Request: fold
Amino acid sequence: MFFIMRPISPARNNTMEDVKLTQKKPPAPKKRGTIRVIVDRCKGCWYCIAYCPTKVLQVSETLNEKGYHPPVLVENPPEKVCIACHMCEMVCPDFAIIVEELK
Reply:
């Protein structure tokens, strides 16, 4: 298999700034949500944090009465928001997470 190497013309020599300017921003999510954690039920398995597709759940610094660190919702709109996919709610073995869709 042969590849033909062509010289790059000055007109096609893009810099990183040119590439950043031409990249489109991701579209805003169609669904938004918020997460309510029942802190006393959480046992700190952190499945919700691992399976969150937008990575808006983080480990909190506070402890619940069992001595575990429950998750906390940390959003950074408009890039990092809860999309109400209910994944964290589905994987929680203790039913400690409730996802509420915003309208």
